[in-house]
Structures are given as structure tokens and as C-alpha cells.
Amino acid sequence: MADLAISTEKLVKTYGRNRGLAGLDLAVDTGEVYGFLGPNGAGKSTTIRLLLDLIRPTSGRVTVLGADPRRGGVALRRRIGYLAGDFVVDGRQTGQELLGYLANLRGGVPRRRIAELADRLDLDLSRKIKGLSKGNRQKIGVVQAFMHSPELLILDEPTSGLDPFLQQQFVAMVRAARAAGQTVFMSSHVMSEVQQTADRVGIIRDGRLLTVERVEELRERAVRRVEIHFAEPVPLAEFSALPGVSDATVDGSTLRCRLDGRADALVKAAARHTVVGLLSEEPDLEELFFSYYSTGEADRVSA
Question: Where in the chain are the domains?
């Protein structure tokens, strides 16, 4: 079993009569990218603040990189890179000055490393932060989180304010971090970046973990829209009763249907005819997420 970079057991956080977390159990493996999904108010940011000891739990246990965040102190924090969804700092400094200061706090970061990350994100470090757009401030936040190559990256809505091109640069940075053996714990509303980077996805609702799934397993079970073009017309009845097939229609020599789960039965049935073309839409993680969230179909957590 892999070592755990993050572990919580029966984690509870209450705010007066309101409950932010209601017995959260998390297990994030060392070296994986873990996508933490849930709408506003589900408990994502509360979880992250507890991991960083920005707030304290009402009850339960938290371990980060093998240490209690409350007792880990500076030594633990140097091993972590953190980025909030809205990176707010003293605007009187330039980006270079701020990153140099933070680099010194973390024991030193080569200037070349900072410059490479800034160039990758098309970031001008000579400008004062107060004159930057939200997107450019967020770029500085991305650089400060990644620049010291931490063992653990904790990212809370990290691409907020970034345009689509720069979101792709961020995806490449996360993939490089994973390849280097770093662990990434990332909450996000951008489903495409989760699909492209995460090994596993945890879905949280009302302060509890609904499910944990590997991304490829989510895709395998998700509903696809399939369109198959045959050389000649095919009988609808041959396909409409197949396992996982629904909403099947035949228009001349074209079959259209929805496929839930494995495609094996549908492919074998289609192979009995001459297939001239096939289109299968990639399962959308966002649709699956909202299915879990709206129906509460996952009553237990699987790994």
C-alpha cells in the first residue's frame, strides 16, 4: 500500500450551529494527483484550511506528510506549496520582489527556476502587483506554489482568472510535478483540467465524501453518446436490448444511442454488420459529477 501524503479520520469542523465538515475521511497517496470536487459550500476550502492549520478541527485527526499540521511548524510548511483561488498579497512589491522574499523563506530557490516559470506563464515580474489584473496576480500565485518543487502541492481553485491557454500551461506543470514524484491535492471547478491531470477524484457533499474513484473508471462507467454508420440498414431491435444501451434509434443505416458502461456488447453486435464509421463522445466528468451530486447515488466510498 502506498504511503499517504494526506490522511484525515472522522474530521469534523463546526462554525457555531453550522457544520463545515461532518466526519471526513481522506486518504491521498504519495505521488498522485487527487482531484477534490464539489460545489461552493460542500467543504472543499474548509478541508484545505484544516490541512494547512489555518483553522483547527472541532474533532478528528489530520496528518500531512506524516506530521500533524499543528505541530509541524516551519519545517512542514517548507515541504508544501499552497495556492488559494484568489491570491492576495501586498501590492506595493513587484512580482520579482515578492517571489524573492518567499523564496528566501523557503530556504532559497534559484532565480533561474523562478524566471522559467514566469516565462512559461507569460508573466512580467518587473511590474508592481497592485497594477496587475486578477489573472496576472494568480500567475504569481502559481509560480510561488511550484517554484520550490515541494513534496506536496495543495491547490484551491488554482486556475481562477487564467485564460484557457494558460490553463493548459498549468495542466502541463501539474503533469510535470507528478512525473517528478510530487503529490498534488487540487480542488477545482474546471472539469477539463481534472480529467487531464487527476489519478483519482473525490466528490464531497455536505462535508462528507460521497465517493472516491479512479478517473479512468469514472470514464468507463459514464454515459457515452454513440453513433454508428453501417453499409446497410440494421434492425433496431438487435441493438435496443443490449446491456447498457438506451435511447437507441435507427435512421436508415445510422444507429444512434446512449451507452452506459462497457462497450463490449455493442461493439460485438455492430461487428456482425459492415461498419463504415463510428463516433463515440468522450464521457464528460462534469455530467458524472452532477449525477453523483444531485442524486446522491454513492452511499459508500470506494478507492
Answer: 4-79+150-218, 223-282
More confident residue, 284 or 183: 183
| Helix residue spans in the chain (DSSP H) | 44-51, 69-77, 95-105, 111-120, 134-146, 164-179, 191-197, 215-221, 237-240, 264-270, 285-295
pTM for the complete prediction? Answer: 0.78
- As a dihedral over the C-alpha atoms of residue 82, residue 84, residue 86, residue 88, rounded to 10 degrees, the angle is -50
∠ CA 81-29-43, nearest 5°, is 65
Nearby residues of 121 by Cβ (< 8 Å), 6 or more positions away: 139, 142, 143, 166, 169
- Measured CA to CA, the distance from residue 205 to residue 191 in angstroms comes to 17
Spatial separation of the C-alpha atoms in residues 25 and 8, rounded to whole Å: 5
> Which residues, 6 or more positions from 171, have their beta carbon under 8 angstroms from its beta carbon?
193, 196, 197
Cβ–Cβ under 8 Å, residues 247 and 258: yes
State which CATH number among 2.60.120, 2.60.40, 4.10.75, 3.30.70 fits the domain covering 223-282: 3.30.70
Task: Specify the higher pLDDT residue, 203 or 301.
Answer: 203
- Give the cell for residue 69: 499540521
Stretch 220-242: mean pLDDT, rounded?
90
d(CA 20, CA 206): 7
Instruction: Give the Cβ contact number of residue 163 at 10 Å.
Output: 11
Q: How many residues does the chain have?
A: 303
